[in-house]
Amino acid sequence: MTEDALSVFRTEVADWLDRHCPASQRQPIVREEQIWGGRRRVFPSDDARKWFEACRDKGYTAPDWPVAYGGAGLDAEQEKILKQEMARLGCRPPLYCQGLWMLGPALLVYGSEDQKREHLGAICRGEIRWAQGYSEPSAGSDLANLKTKAEDCGDHFLVNGTKIWTTKADEADWIFCLVRTRDAAPKQAGISFLLIDMASEGVSTSPIELISGDSEFCQTFFDNVRVPKRNLVGAINEGWAVAKELLNHERKMMAAFEGMLEKPAMALLELAHYAVGVSEDGRLADPELRSDIVSHLMRETAIAQMGERIYRQGKAGQMDARLPLLMKYLGTSQAQVKDELILAALGGEGLSMDDESVASEGVRKMVKQWAFNKSLTIAGGTSEVQLNIIAKRALGMASGERRS
Ligand SMILES: Cc1cc2nc3c(=O)[nH]c(=O)nc-3n(C[C@H](O)[C@H](O)[C@H](O)COP(=O)(O)OP(=O)(O)OC[C@H]3O[C@@H](n4cnc5c(N)ncnc54)[C@H](O)[C@@H]3O)c2cc1C
User: Fold this and answer.
1) Which domain holds residue 319?
2) What pTM did the predictor assign?
3) Which of 96, 112, 143 is the endpoint of a domain?
4) Residues 102-152: pLDDT tens digits?
5) How far is it, in rounded angstroms, from Cα 56 to Cα 42?
6) Which of 172, 181, 274, 379 gets the highest tally of CB atoms within 10 A of its CB?
């Protein structure tokens, strides 16, 4: 697209957003008001419903997906403009969903035409909520060690086994799963990728509590679950390729995940000024904290610039494939450094996430976020494993890479 055409597009998008995004949906998102879609979806308000429906009808829940599958068919430049204009107005993301972030992009590559038509539109329209069934008690980083078995029974598979750490599977309608369809060496060669309706007989879940006190994930059990053959994505025993494609998208999502979470009531610097105070020359009163915050902000800028570099290289068709590998590790570790700085600034007030006599609600939320964000460097592949991948693929060193 020419610069002129992009400029016209920007004006149209800004105008559309201004007309369709209610003022209440331009406020920072709070966790309870995120819209995850699904058969049991609820909208926290009429405005939230209107905003979601406007985006859904325009294809803006999945802006870069083809129009035929419910997206808006935007190219990379247009999508970036949409994101910029939404950020400028403070528009909330219309939909949160593992189907959008992970399954959809993998289906676009590996799904059959029937699967794309059945599932992609339902994701964009927020009708079906998906969970991810990869990890098992003995298969996390070493994902290919998975044991959940899918037996070929003619027109269907019979699935038996268990998946663990399945985020919100108890609220999901469907789950995408890696299953073992044959014993093979290497282990990756006997894995298939299946789509399973959570309403199928024999599927059950049991919640697991996180350190933050929330129960974000559960263990999911499959007991003689019949899964129609048409729910196999890609070829039998070749699910590892689908799994890896999906993991690429999961890493991308995880790198940016902190940005999708509820924002603290105050930005880091503002909070530090408020909590620690300023000296006579107007600088943060605690020099050590000041220095740590400056380092953090410089690194944050460097990471953002690296993201921009990746985007520009992609646009020019000159992507250095090593760079995106770094983003999950950098993005998630950076989020945790920020949490530590918030806690350092809060001092004694930051000692409790549930005691009202110690801290206000806003502060307790920040402490809870600190606890929750511990999971960012585990979910989607641990930092240690990411470093192995970087060592091997970006630096050409030998490593014990797994979950890739
Ligand atoms: C909040 C959260 C949500 C999640 N949601 C989902 C979900 O929806 N679906 C799903 O399938 N899974 C989910 N997971 C699971 C996640 O993918 C796994 O926890 C992760 O892959 C690590 O596996 P594990 O927990 O079995 O740890 P392990 O693999 O047992 O690792 C334990 C420790 O050993 C280290 N380690 C392991 N292998 C190596 C190696 N080769 N080199 C160096 N160090 C190594 C790890 O870094 C880690 O510190 C979620 C996890 C979290 C925390």
Assistant:
1) 256-394
2) 0.90
3) 96
4) 999 999 999 999 999 999 999 999 999 999 999 999 999 999 999 999 999
5) 15
6) 172
